[in-house]
Design goal:
The chain is an alpha/beta fold and about 500 residues long. It has helices spanning about 5-10, 50-70, 70-90, 90-100, 105-125, 165-175, 190-200, 215-225, 240-250, 275-285, 305-320, 340-355, 385, 405-410, 425-435; strands spanning about 15-20, 20-25, 30-35, 40-45, 130-135, 140-150, 155, 180-185, 210, 230-235, 255-260, 265-270, 295-300, 355-360, 365, 370, 375, 395-400, 415, 420, 440-445, 460, 460-465, 475-485. The chain has 2 domains: about 5-260 and about 465-480, Aldehyde Dehydrogenase, Chain A, domain 1 (3-Layer(aba) Sandwich); about 265-450, 3-Layer(aba) Sandwich (Aldehyde Dehydrogenase, Chain A, domain 2). The strands form 7 sheets. The chain has a 7-stranded mixed sheet with strand order 14-17-18-13-12-20-21, with helices on both faces. The radius of gyration is 23 Å and the shape is globular. It binds the ligand O=CCCCC(=O)O. Ligand LJUCG4UG binds near residues 160, 292, 294, 449 and 455. It holds the Pfam family Aldedh.
Length: about 500
């Protein structure tokens, strides 16, 4: 690590933040954080125990009453200030993110902006929480509705977008008047600690936000989900873990938001603008080194343009520089850990053995967890690569003939997070958008993420929406009062 990088890492708090104080873990243990480009250990952070988790919940529960009654304008101003400070600290946050999970600095800077937008958006939503008042149909009672905060919320965030996935949850939680416990992924605790320093600086009251990072998420999560003071769980991660958490959360009937895995189809019709489609596919595939639930997992190309498209995508992939995300000109960083390299290698090897052709890349290299941008041609829907989330820089290409055929193939997965389609025919675009079984569709673009849009999936990709006008509803419940109208 360079001395300037060391300085930024050293400046970040390494302890837990509970009830307004930085604290060691109750057993004083720490765990290591590694740079995936070099495998160098860059920091050691406090390793939260189940007791620490319960202390965080106690702090959040104690602060809930007064935070829930804070004037919306006050909550809005605090979030707005957090937005401004996040922008001011863009460089430091971006560097931490790149060091602990590998994405190129330019992408990390982009994530900081994306993350900050959730703070701005929800600072604007905090003052627009609405109710209603109307006469019941019988004329004998009035109906009054109001929205109230659901209460202490447990926010579990992933390593692939260490900042944006947290602000996408914390922004609406705080705007709605909920207190929170944030548990970042064990691979990326530093970005979140630096963001907590911002939340502390803006002056959030003690106990409103609490931070617990741990090397044993299951042990720390279990007592929280069994404690009746907790009212909400929001999780971003795999479908497999989401299902386990849902089962645990069922005892207390927790409000849930589940943003889970995907198997995104990207469809290129023969009436597409091919340059636009190649750009969109490269973005949808390689953003975050392919380590995103939104990543294009299956790329379907209509026969008439299949060759032109795959050639253009190949030259695009071969022009990219792979390396440590802090280096000038690097387009694609490392994967996050050895298990990720193993999985991507297994999927590519399986496709090759079953007869697919690797036309670009195909291999991993060191010293970190690097994998070349790869294109696999001639994939069949029965291959493992078609049915598992690749989570790496590997484009799997399929050829199709008919519109209905590709819609059926796109929908033939248990997942339903996002799809992308490229066509210059507006009627076709709208028709296919309606037929795709996903929560989101990118039309002639390879990115759907926007703080103002409701992000979320259907089927095994989960439920609940983050961002957009819908995002704050996940942290509110509707209370209705039936008012005797006889004397009104
Ligand atoms: O892995 C899923 C994170 C989604 C990031 C985004 O908002 O695009």
């Amino acid at each position: 690590m360079l001395p300037s990088e060391r300085e930024v890492v050293d400046a970040v708090a390494k302890d837990l933040y509970i009830g307004g104080k930085w604290r060691k873990s109750s057993d004083s243990k720490r765990f290591r954080v590694e740079d995936p480009s070099t495998k160098e250990v860059i920091a050691e952070v406090a390793d939260a125990t189940p007791d620490d988790a319960l202390a965080a919940l106690e702090a959040a529960a104690d602060a809930q009453r007064s935070w829930g009654r804070t004037a919306p304008r006050v909550r809005a101003e605090l979030l707005r200030r957090a937005f401004e400070l996040t922008l001011q600290r863009q460089e430091e946050l971006a560097l931490l993110m790149t060091l602990e999970m590998g994405k190129p600095l330019a992408e990390s800077r982009g994530e900081v902006l994306y993350a900050a937008e959730f703070l701005r958006w929800f600072s604007e939503e905090a003052v627009r929480i609405k109710g209603d008042y109307y006469m019941g149909p019988e004329g004998s009672m009035k109906i009054l509705t109001q929205r109230q905060p659901v209460g202490p919320s447990y926010l579990i965030t992933p390593w692939n977008f260490p900042l944006a996935m947290a602000t996408r949850k914390l922004g609406p939680a705080l705007a709605a008047g909920c207190t929170a416990i944030v548990k970042p992924a064990e691979l990326t605790p530093l970005t979140m600690a630096a963001f907590f320093e911002i939340l502390i600086e803006v002056g959030l009251p003690d106990g409103v936000v609490n931070l617990i990072h741990t090397s044993d998420p299951a042990a720390v999560t279990k007592p929280l989900l069994s404690d009746r003071r907790l009212r909400k769980l929001s999780f971003t991660g795999s479908t497999e873990v989401g299902r386990l958490l849902m089962a645990q959360a069922s005892n207390n009937l927790l409000r849930l938001s589940m943003e889970l895995g995907g198997n995104a189809p990207l469809i290129v019709f023969d009436d597409a603008d091919i340059e636009k489609a190649v750009q969109g596919a490269a973005l949808a595939k390689l953003r975050n080194t392919g380590e995103a639930c939104t990543s294009a997992n299956r790329i379907f190309v209509q026969r008439g343009v299949a060759e032109e498209f795959s050639e253009a995508l190949k030259s695009r992939f071969e022009s990219l520089k792979v390396g440590r995300g802090t280096e000038e000109g690097v387009d694609v960083g490392p994967l996050v850990e050895q298990a990720a390299v193993d999985k991507v290698s297994r999927l590519v090897a399986d496709a090759r053995e079953r007869g697919a052709k690797i036309v670009a890349g195909g291999g991993s290299f060191g010293p970190g967890y690097f994998f070349e941008p790869t294109i696999v041609l001639g994939v069949d829907p029965s291959f493992a690569i078609a049915n598992e989330e690749i989570f790496g820089p590997v484009a799997a290409l399929y050829v199709f003939d008919e519109e209905q055929e590709v819609v059926d193939m796109a929908n033939s997965t248990p997942y339903g997070l996002v799809a992308y389609l490229f066509t210059e025919n507006l009627n076709r675009a709208l028709r296919v958008v309606e037929r795709l079984e996903t929560g989101m569709v990118g039309v002639n673009q390879g990115l759907v993420s926007n703080a103002a849009g409701p992000f979320g999936g259907v089927k095994q990709s989960g439920f609940g929406r983050e961002g957009g006008f819908e995002g704050i509803e996940e942290y509110l419940y509707v209370k209705y009062a039936a008012i005797n109208a006889a004397e009104l």
